[in-house]
Amino acid sequence: MKEEQKIFLIILDGLGDRPIDSFTGQTPLEAARTPVLNLLAEKGTLGLIDVEGVGVRPGSDTSYLSLLGYDPKEYYFGRGPFEALGAGINMNPGDVAFRVNFATLDKKGKVADRRAGRIEKCNELAKALEKIKSEVKFSIKATREHRGALVFKGKGISPNITTNDSKNTGVKPLEIKPTDETPEAKNTASIANDFLSQANKLLDKHPENKKRQKNKLQPANYLLLRGAGSYHPLPSIKERYGLTSATIAGDSLYKGIAIATGMDVVEVRGATGAGDTNLLAKTLTAKNTLLTHDFVVLHIKGTDDFGHDGDAMGKKAFIERVDAALTELANIDNTIIALTGDHSTPCALKNHSGDAVPLLINGRGVRVDSIQKFGERDAAKGGMGRIRGLDLMPELLNLAGRAKMYGT
Amino acid sequence: MKEEQKIFLIILDGLGDRPIDSFTGQTPLEAARTPVLNLLAEKGTLGLIDVEGVGVRPGSDTSYLSLLGYDPKEYYFGRGPFEALGAGINMNPGDVAFRVNFATLDKKGKVADRRAGRIEKCNELAKALEKIKSEVKFSIKATREHRGALVFKGKGISPNITTNDSKNTGVKPLEIKPTDETPEAKNTASIANDFLSQANKLLDKHPENKKRQKNKLQPANYLLLRGAGSYHPLPSIKERYGLTSATIAGDSLYKGIAIATGMDVVEVRGATGAGDTNLLAKTLTAKNTLLTHDFVVLHIKGTDDFGHDGDAMGKKAFIERVDAALTELANIDNTIIALTGDHSTPCALKNHSGDAVPLLINGRGVRVDSIQKFGERDAAKGGMGRIRGLDLMPELLNLAGRAKMYGT
Questions:
Q1: Which of A173, A198, A230 is the last residue of a domain?
Q2: pLDDT tens digits, one per residue of A295-304
């Protein structure tokens, strides 16, 4: 018998939910028909995870770090750097990164749409912005839809500046200001304001935007900068756990965290990071990747999107699609499989909540418990009890026979 | 009614396990016939302990400290000092101690057996080593079988040196080297290498070894030094909890931790620290010791040995013997009884794992739960839930009516 097992971690973003009246008080997960998950549950053990602590409402970035065993108190430096890495921008320590929304500014200079009419892609627009004349080197890339990332490179800059995004429409964007008295922060605020003004001018006259306006679509003629953060390298998964590792994810944030932690990013055709993603392709790719890597993380975003939209029926149906795509897991040997959420996104709230997320662990050596169905309240009765986000990796390493001894 | 109760903590080393096919998926504890433990469970409450945290794989030393309420992050300074105290060597702060294996070096200077053919005792051999001429004062004692402890005494020495034990046979022992640049570490490495070389010469010509070789047994002609640590006194159990206390244990590590924490060590004839130990004598002695002490710890090693040997049947049978020996507990009054493991030693792994250990607490005032059998998965459903190693002593003090108030 091989002592060491592989680890396959499946994260359904925003999986956890609350009772829904139209489901006779069941959650979307509880209401969903999930024969594969139930089989895994029957032959596995269940529990609940408080990803950042009991009742703490996690962000997407912090919760993902915690599930990988990186305490965000130590390793979280803002979302921007992870988005930028995920967008394919190389970074050096000290570079300052932002997540970017391509947005619409109306003729009065007010924000008309924070997502530029949910534009499909902004690659050409981002390219046009390379002409901006700035006193720092910079890099800007579009990712999916209206999203992208911007990095200011070099020395003498600081992430300690405010955002220009008021999160409202019909108002002028905010002026970016330093949040401390350092020359670096003042300098960066000034660089950012100048960058935004030049970007607005370049984007306004860009042919793609002219065409959009002709077609009565909102032009993507402005940038909203959020999640400013200074990049610092993280210790790698290999250094921390001795594992070769890979991530399969559609969304740039999760790719970025993978890159920051030295994981391979395996691209999957049709992995969109949204509800229309190619689930079967992702699952099959994950299974293949387990042949060459010790630790594979499969991130599925759709559950979260349906939660944010308050679409309980959609969330339930998506979970059923995930269940079907996981059929292939039945014949994975020598692998500890864990499936959980990074946080709850209750449809009733349309936002992240601090409700604990259900956890399912299956594989050789697991103390199989008596719970036969995967759902929030079934999981609460499971043999794993209630653990924290940072406990997950130690538990998986332990079950996989890969934990180092503390003491002798 | 007397408010304060006594506390009787029984630690079955390596008790926790994983499902075993030949036991139809039960663990050795679950498969064992344990009427006494089940009666204690029925009238008590159960739970799980993550001794060093969820999934963390505990050593024997760190886990024992945690169960006594001493955070190893603060109080663990290597295994050597505890082994030396347990072997009966007096220590002063700063003394550097090692655990010792008497081993066999072949004629080519290679390690032939790390345990010298599992020699029965080395007391005379250890005595012969007192003739070694070293520039520091030292003390060496044999404990059970091939085991012992060595202490370098005085100033100008450091525990920051490597071991000579590669854990392999058929290779030369490693040269001991300093792990930092201090003169103390360099000095200690040099002292240790010289000590080992002299020990080899003295042991080689010792009559006991001559006799062993004549009888085709491996001579115990070399020392492997491990677990280097510098001794520092710990706050006593009396200081921390206000309890008079005693330990009953066969193995020198647990006696050493008892001495370090100011507990009385009660010797029991036939307590071997192994599977052949006199369980009834240990239990009866513990019961008597409760007449004179507030807090008694009974440590039973055998469960761990069977786990390390991968002997599930042996582990199950040993647990049944423990159960029988605990019959006497039925009529202990005014005592909170807690029984748990210091870690899991699953037979399938033949080593410590980070799986949670089952906990049973019985005594006046305990919130008796509905669980009627003592086993890993029954414990997971118990009223105590899932706690950490450092939580155990506060809970026992609380139930015994001996906890100090935090605030007013």
A1: A230
A2: 999 999 999 9
